[in-house]
């Protein structure tokens, strides 16, 4: 992949109280009352709102040679259903037609505000990769525990229609990728190209740090 190829990484940060570990959940950087096996894990414990209703989303444009080439911010509702639209709005705010790929940390940011990556890929006309970092039994039990009625049905529909998670080996580590808008082989090449060291793609690493800093700055 050419060194100037650009990807947009999307990560979030919000405050909450950890309850149920789920490997498809994003790394929100929230304050946790229940420790996960790795307190700085890329797959957060699921969190319930704790006086905060918004999660800060950061989009980081990063080139394949690790040059950071742009930042943008948006918010989505903790426990809501607006994450997909919020990411689309963030992408449009950048005005960056040179972004080739969009990488999203997990599929269920902001306490099960599920990202419809198929719809997002169609809306943005770009491949969208949801990247998570741990083995998972799936989100359906946790969704059924915390939601009912239309709220549950809506989330289950998005989750069941999501592309399957595929394991990708990168730098002697393993990540799990859902790909919409490209095939699994291309998705694996993208993840490896944007992960020069360790197991975290650089666009997601930068976006996570920026989202945390923005949340702390605004006191969310």
Model description:
Residues 29-50 have a biased composition (Low complexity). Residues 1-52 are annotated as: Disordered. This is UPF0215 protein AUR66_09255. The protein has 220 residues and is α+β, with helices and mostly antiparallel strands. The protein contains 7 helices and 9 strands. It has helices at residues 83-94, 109-112, 117-124, 140-146, 149-161, 184-193, 202-218; strands at 6-13, 16-21, 45-49, 54-63, 68-77, 99-105, 128-132, 166-170, 173-180. The protein has a 7-stranded mixed beta sheet, with helices on both faces. A hairpin with a 2-residue loop joins strand 8 and strand 9. Helix 1 (83-94) runs parallel beside helix 3 (117-124) and helix 4 runs antiparallel to helix 5. The radius of gyration is 16 Å and the shape is globular.
Note the topology.
Layout: E1 6-13, E2 16-21, E3 45-49, E4 54-63, E5 68-77, H1 83-94, E6 99-105, H2 109-112, H3 117-124, E7 128-132, H4 140-146, H5 149-161, E8 166-170, E9 173-180, H6 184-193, H7 202-218
Parallel strand pairs: 1-6, 6-7
Antiparallel strand pairs: 1-4, 2-3, 4-5, 7-9, 8-9
Helix pairs in contact: 1-3, 4-5
Task: Sum up the structure in keywords.
about 220 residues; alpha+beta; seven-stranded mixed beta sheet; two-stranded antiparallel ribbon; 7 helices; 9 strands; Endo_dU; UPF0215 protein AUR66_09255
Question: What's this model, at a glance?
Answer:
The chain is α+β, with helices and mostly antiparallel strands. Helices cover 32% and strands 29% of the residues.
């Amino acid at each position: 992949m050419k060194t100037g190829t650009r990807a947009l990484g999307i990560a979030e940060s919000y405050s909450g109280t950890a309850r149920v570990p789920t490997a498809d959940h994003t790394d929100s950087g929230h304050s946790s009352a229940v420790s996960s096996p790795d307190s700085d894990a890329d797959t957060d414990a699921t969190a319930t709102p704790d006086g905060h209703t918004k999660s800060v989303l950061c989009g980081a444009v990063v080139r394949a040679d690790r040059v950071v080439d742009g930042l943008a911010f948006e918010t989505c509702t903790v426990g809501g259903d607006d994450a997909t639209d919020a990411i689309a709005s963030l992408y449009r705010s950048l005005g960056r037609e040179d972004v080739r790929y969009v990488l999203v940390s997990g599929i269920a940011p902001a306490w099960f505000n599920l990202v419809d990556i198929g719809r997002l890929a169609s809306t943005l006309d770009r491949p969208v990769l949801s990247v998570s970092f741990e083995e998972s039994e799936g989100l359906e039990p946790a969704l059924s525990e915390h939601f009912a009625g239309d709220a549950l049905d809506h989330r289950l529909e998005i989750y069941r229609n999501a592309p399957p998670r595929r394991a990708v080996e990168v730098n002697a580590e393993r990540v799990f990728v859902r790909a919409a808008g490209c095939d699994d082989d291309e998705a694996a090449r993208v993840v490896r190209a944007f992960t020069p060291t360790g197991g975290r793609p650089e666009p997601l690493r930068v976006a996570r740090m920026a989202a945390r800093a923005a949340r702390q700055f605004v006191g969310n």
